[in-house]
Amino acid sequence: MQGRRSSPSVFAEPLFLTDKTLIPKSVRASELEHIGGAVQSLSLRVADEASIQAIARALPDRPNLRRLGLRFEAPWTGELSEGMAALQSHCAQHAVELWVELALGPESDAFSVLAGRDSALSRFVEFGRHLCAAEFKVRWLVPLVSELVYRIEGLHLLAADEGVDLCCFRTEQELSPDERLFVWDFIHYGLLGSKRASLSGEQIAYYEELRQHFSPGDCGGLAGIRDILEVVRDGIRAHASRLMAGSRPVPIKAGRAMDRVLLIGAYGGEHIGDIAILGGVLCRLHARYGTTQAVLMSQRPAHTRHLVPMLDVPVKLSVEEYDWPQIRGAIDEVDAVVFAGGPLIDLPKQLVRHLYAVSLARRQRKPFIAEGIGPGPFARWPSKWTAARMIRMASRISVRSSDCAGHELVEKLEVEVGPCPSFDYLETRGAAPNRLFESEQADIDSLLEASAGRPVIGLNLRPVGHLFTVGADGEDPAEYTRRIEARFEERLADGLRIYHAMCSGDRKPCFVLFPMNAIQFGMSDLLSAYRIQRLLGHDVDFRVWQRDVSLDGIVTFLRRVDVAITMRFHATIFALSQAAQVIGIDYRIGKRDKVAELLDDLGRGEDVTRIDLLTGEWLADRLGALKRP
Question: Do residues 426 and 276 lie in contact, with contact meaning Cβ atoms separated by under 8 Å?
Fold first, then answer.
């Protein structure tokens, strides 16, 4: 159903919202007579038709009332009552804003609704459709409790599809630090970021207060014009430092020990794949140079500190905010600067800091190492120019594929070609990974319930941005990208259906989507999961792991799948490292990219395609051909 824009009532009325916990407050309809007539906003719990009748009788005596919420904690079935219609008529005549509030329970799951399973939420959805058809404004109330934290995105997407408003609110339940960070990220980059245009001023004010409550304090993001000016200012400083430092690399002396190093890279926006890269780089540095301590610079330290405990490495690691004073202080205390793997791409704010850190090290005759990097792509020439000047100062450069060695940024430099450092770390995970949470093991057991003897297909899908799209040919790149992405999703769903039909009755496949990135920063894989589930309905057995999963959690899960369909580069690496057969999908539209490079280097080029070239028939054919060795 197409969503309709609704205008919410003020959230912060004293009766509607308590001061301490921001819990939406309501009273029983039977208590209405005890509330003063001057109150302008009410939220009343409705249990039955008698409640409706009591409210209808009381409203004429309340000329000051301007907002009325009817709170349902369970859905009604059947047609709407005459009392509801009478209330609606009265509110329309007397300019009272009327809302129907549906209080969702901790078991609510949008994916279950899309799959056609009966639940309290599916009954609320049906009830809401009756209400919307009768032109009531409907709001879902979602408590921020542990059971629902990782289901927030799905619930918001379902609410938008159903044309209803959704309000997340705090409760007295204390969330874990990881859960609080996840909620903050969803509010900051989701509700107040990509979804901001769909919110009213009152909603924005409400969620800004909620964001402040969950804020980790040092996890900010980009801020438009301010960041552009900051990049220009910092770029001047970085290039001035480079000119004073010179451009020749500092040679690494044979047998030189590097006990303490400074790590730079695309950290702060990382997911578990990037943390595996970090683990591999640390293992290499420890083995090659005897490194025992490292300082990692991150643009979002709280996020990085959340991920770092997933690593089991022989190097003591601390995380600092990637800013000028921290860079200057760290350079004096370390033996070298290391670009710790991953993408060297068009991130202007980070690139100027990289150049500054490397220049300071060069002035102190400390080497700079680029370990296991992937250069490009670059959409802006100043970023490419900055990256080129930085990489020329590298004492040693290793890249993660043969295609990377041919990139124009490094093609004229001496480089070593080897596997992505994440492979190094994943080799250390052993038979029983020691960073697996008990809750994740329970998740995996639940996700794979009743799948014994059936093909288990893991999927990692991700949304696609338009910055690096090729081939729009005069069209708006964002619109073109979304059109190609939507076509890809339809074709992928068709491929899953075709393969499902190919399998015999007791060997029907079980598809499980696993997120490598479940947060909004970096684009949440759960958005793609929702779109595929919406297309599939209940045609096939499609399950979604709704969690911000740990590194060892993904490793443990992938050991139980037969084939993995992967879009993210590191989902491909993780699956390969655990001996799953892999079908890769390059998500860069119009041009071959890193997933194809990886599988080509391994001699598996027939098992990879591009997002704009995939067909359902090809996918079903590859699924039928691959089996776990």
Answer: yes
The structure tokens listed for 30 are 């039977």
Alpha-carbon distance of 179 to 184, in angstroms, equals 9
- Token pair 């007791």 is found at 506
CA distances from 83 to 53, 80, 140, 514 (A): 6, 8, 21, 46
In this structure, what DSSP letter does residue 484 have?
A: H
For residue 328, the model assigns a pLDDT of: 93
Residue 560, number of CB atoms within 10 A of its CB: 16
Q: Are 181 and 208 in contact (CB under 8 A)?
A: no
Q: How is residue 367 written in tokens? A: 């080497």
DSSP-assigned beta bridge partners for residue 565: 459, 583
Burial tier of 220 (Cβ tally within 10 Å: 0-12, 13-18, 19+): middle
pLDDT score at 27:
65
Q: How far apart are CA 271 and CA 484, in angstroms?
A: 25
pLDDT for the residue 55: 84
Name the one residue in this structure whose structure tokens are 């050991």.
Answer: 559
**Residue 68: HSE in the Cβ half-sphere, 13 Å Cα cutoff:** 27
What are the structural domains, with CATH classification, of the chain?
27-214 (3.20.20), 225-426 (3.40.50), 438-625 (3.40.50.2000)
Beta bridge partners of 17: 24
Q: How far apart are CA 370 and CA 265, in angstroms?
A: 9
- Can you give the pLDDT at residue 165? 93
Report residue 190: phi and psi, to 5°. -95, -75
Predicted local confidence at residue 224, as pLDDT: 58
* pLDDT for position 29: 63
- 526 is written with which tokens? 């759960």
pLDDT of residue 6: 36
Q: What is the largest CA-CA distance in the chain?
A: 90
Residues of the chain with pLDDT under 50: 1-23, 222
Which residues, 6+ apart, have CB-to-CB distance to 324 below 8 Å? 234, 237, 353, 356
Which residues, 6 or more positions from 496, have their beta carbon under 8 angstroms from its beta carbon?
509, 511, 536, 540, 542, 619, 620
Q: What pLDDT, on a 0 to 100 scale, did the predictor assign at position 19?
A: 35
CA dist., res. 353 & res. 362, Å (int): 14
Integer Cα distance of 141 and 9 in angstroms:
13
